[in-house]
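Have a close read of this protein, sequence plus structure tokens, and explain what the tokens say about the fold. Thanks in advance:
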Amino acid sequence: MVYRVLVTNHAKKNLAQLPKNDAKEICLELKSLSFEDNPKNHVKKLKGNKNPPFYSLRVGSYRVILNIEDNVMVIHVIEAGHRSKIYRGY
């Protein structure tokens, strides 16, 4: 069971602005997450009344905001950035 990883245009732009080795590390972590049986065990659920809920994936000092849909086995990458700025608006 492999989850598909879909990256929004905004997240692609965020990843392009990061240092190359950090962006590469994030991509490797997302690929690793897609092969997990239950990827929600490896991320932190963000608090709030968001429907669908958002999750945070920790990669060094960077965070990736995602949404995981189990019924269609898709991981939507919403945004990526440094941990000091990423949570604003979520």
